[in-house]
Design brief:
7-stranded mixed sheet; 41% helix; Rossmann fold; 3-stranded antiparallel sheet; 2 domains; alpha/beta; Four Helix Bundle (Hemerythrin (Met), subunit A); binds 5-S-methyl-1-O-phosphono-5-thio-D-ribulose
Amino acid sequence: MQSIIWSQDGLKLLDQTLLPSRTEYISCQDYRRVADAIRRLEVRGAPAIGVAAAFAMVLGAREVSESGGDFLPALRNIAKELKQTRPTAVNLFWAIDRMLAAASRLEAAQKDEILAALEDEALALAEEDKTVNQKIAKYGADLFSSEISILTHCNAGALATVAFGTALGVIRHAWGEGKIRRVFADETRPLLQGARLTAWEMMQEGIPVTLITDSMAGWVMKKRMVDAVIVGADRITLDGDVANKIGTYSVAILAKEHNIPFYVAAPVATFDFSIKSGEDIVIEERSSREVTSFGGVDTAPGGVDVFNPAFDVTPNSLVTAIVTECGVIRPPFAAAIDKLNDKKGGR
Ligand code: MRU
């Protein structure tokens, strides 16, 4: 099931808020609809929102071209609007900046030429995501020498990317090599990406998966039911601190306590080379209704105070290794991450 489909008719996004009960696509001809989809998590996962935003830039450029306005300034405004959808995943900003750079390079060209170049750039971004994930998958699977049970949090799968996934890409590849006994999927409160999306993706491929609530992870580790943890990331700093779905930090602490390796799988596009530590990462806070209700049903007393950060930051000291398309890096991360800087945008 593809999360993002581009054609001459526009962009189709698999509505991930309806999974697993319904598989429906949202048709977007207007970049504003894509922005809404990113905000509502209809499309989600750091690489997927980056690629969706890139195609939104193509839609926006077509609109500007038809309205006859001042092309580049109008496109920059659209970029600004798209960047305001979600603050934490750096892939969003990276992809939009790549689109802007592609347009700026052709500043003096005809509009048609710029439109074609933008479409080519978005298609290239989508294609790169697939190849990058395949490389991550291979490097990640090489970490395991025998059959293991592995725990993952949230959904860093095909749905969160253009194809294969990052953390789930590693699991898929390792499964193909006979190295996966079972996947434990944290349900991932409050929006249940683990239960709705990861469990679904694994079941579609016949990979044995056991769903647990987030609060069960510690006990599952204590009972030695898990040999490794692997998660995706939304932003990784120069020091190797990792922002990912809320609850990841707790899983990392639990893994440390139980001597279980904690791996992060992410493309170079997820590294933010402009910030040193996790302290500087902006953490998105979302509506209190995500915590006080589910499926339209109240699950908490009306008016209760709620704190709903969508992400947390796992300090590098809890991370065993980070798997990228350029290989596996291990602590101390700073020097290795510095080297990755050369690769960003130029793969
Ligand atoms: O809020 P979401 O569902 O977009 O959060 C997604 C995650 O935290 C993923 O783990 C991360 O984006 C990596 S996806 C390959």
